[in-house]
Design goal:
The structure is a single chain. This protein is of the alpha/beta class. About 40% of the residues lie in helices and about 20% in strands. It has a single domain, classed as Aldolase class I (TIM Barrel, Alpha-Beta Barrel), CATH 3.20.20.70. The strands form two sheets. Strands 1, 2, 3, 4, 5, 8, 9, 10, 11 and 12 form a ten-stranded mixed sheet that branches. Strands 6-7 form a two-stranded antiparallel sheet. The longest helix has 18 residues. The chain is globular, with a radius of gyration of 21 Å. The relative contact order is 0.13. The chain binds ligand PBG and zinc ion.
Length: about 325
């Protein structure tokens, strides 16, 4: 007769692995470590600003003083890196704020690197937050509507990436999905004396409704149209592998898959196909769903948080960008999972 203990993993499993709880720890196939978590942060101008984002409880638009406080908290808990998004005061048709030497991103990177030199600063390289129309590239409007001009956009992205590196960014992470951007950014970084700055490419970025809450956070909702012209179709998996391979050829040092939860097969396949470092971005909508269900008492927030992160790791992600980074770090510290 098999006796299954209630409330714990069994000490003994007939016909499976003999697992004393000590052995369970020893043979656990997946580890989630605080060193694999990256915290996204949104910065805007001002002092003592902490503006809540409706669909992302616990996430804020922060002025840089407040941002340093949150980054310090993360750093003290052992979170090794933050991913920065800038929200400029003004937007225009050529995203000037994205590559201004004294733009919101550049200022914040300098401040973070000064106050927390050991914390890795990853910068999101994109134009949507800085464009008046909210698209990730230059838009040409004609009778047929609007078109994204791929190649002219590359120059601006390259300038933005170089300006981030100049300010002290440790890693740049282009999220725009224009063709050829990795090569353009690599050349610009090299030319500016930043050949040591790695590129973390959002190679597999799907046109996803899970980005909804982020657009409020980053104030980057496209004024018209959507991003299906340059982001990937949820139906396609092989295409993600091709995108990853292309980006690696152009000089990407690590690959990101985004969103994470609904695309775990892609995380796995990209890891297996490339054998490159792969990160997964548990995006705003994934975070919002867990928070909303937990607020209603329908899900156990902490347990679902840890389970979702374990699943992303098990799929093959080397690291995870998540709005839960601080909370998960706390739980890991307290040994609750
Ligand atoms: C835009 C960008 C997006 C996210 C990261 N960078 C949104 C988009 O493409 O609309 C989404 C992140 C999230 O939802 O948490 N370059
Ligand atoms: Zn964008």
């Amino acid at each position: 007769m098999n006796l299954h203990p209630v409330g714990q993993f069994p000490a003994y499993r007939p016909r499976r692995m003999r697992q004393s709880s000590a052995l369970r720890r020893l043979v656990s196939e997946t580890q989630l470590n605080v060193a694999q978590l990256v915290l996204p942060l949104f910065v805007r101008n001002g002092r003592k600003v902490r503006r809540p984002i409706a669909a992302m409880p616990g996430v804020f638009q922060l002025s840089s003083d407040e941002l340093v406080r949150d980054a310090t908290r993360a750093h003290e808990l052992g979170v090794p890196a933050v991913l920065l998004f800038g929200i400029p005061d003004t937007k225009d048709a050529k995203a000037s704020g994205a590559y201004a030497a004294n733009g919101i991103m550049q200022q914040t990177v300098r401040r973070l690197k000064k106050e927390l030199p050991e914390l890795l600063v990853i910068t999101d390289v994109c134009l949507c937050e800085y464009m008046e129309h909210g698209h990730c590239g230059i838009v040409h409007y004609d009778k047929a509507g609007g078109r994204i001009l791929n190649d002219p956009t590359l120059k601006l992205l390259a300038r933005a990436a170089a300006s981030h590196a100049e300010a002290g960014a440790d890693i740049v992470a282009p999220s725009d999905m224009m063709d050829g951007r990795i090569g353009a950014i690599r050349s610009a970084l090299d030319a500016a004396g930043h050949s040591e700055t790695p590129i973390l490419s959002y190679a597999a970025k799907y046109a996803s409704a899970y980005f909804g809450p982020f657009r409020e956070a980053a104030e980057s909702t496209p004024r018209s149209g959507d991003r299906r012209g340059y982001q990937m179709d949820a139906a396609n998996g092989d295409e993600a592998i091709r995108e990853a391979m292309l980006d690696i050829e152009e000089g990407a040092d690590a690959i990101l898959v985004k969103p994470a939860g609904p695309y775990l097969d892609i995380v796995h396949r990209v890891k297996v196909a490339t054998r490159y470092p792969v990160g997964a971005y548990q995006v705003s909508g994934e975070y919002a769903m867990i928070c909303a269900a937990a607020e209603r008492g329908w899900l156990d927030r902490d347990r679902v948080m840890m389970e979702s992160l374990a699943g992303i790791r098990r799929a093959g992600a080397d690291f995870i960008i998540t709005y839960f980074a601080i909370e998960a770090a706390r739980r890991l510290r307290d040994g609750q999972d």
